[in-house]
Amino acid sequence: MSASGQQVAMPHPFDLGGQVALVTGSSGGIGEATARVLARAGAHVIISSRKAEDCERVAGEFRDAGLSAEARVCHIGRMEDIESMAAHLRETHGGLDILVNNAVLSPWRRIEDVDLGLFTKTVEVDLRGYWFMSVEGVKLMRERGGGSIVNIASIAAWHPDRMLGLYSTLKTALIGMSRSFALEYGEEGIRANTVLPGVIKTKLADAYDEDAKAQIVDKSTVKRLGEPEEIGYAVLYLCAASGAFVSGATLPVDGGFSVALA
Question: Which of 111, 170, 210, 229 has the most CB atoms around its CB within 10 Å?
Answer without folding.
Answer: 170
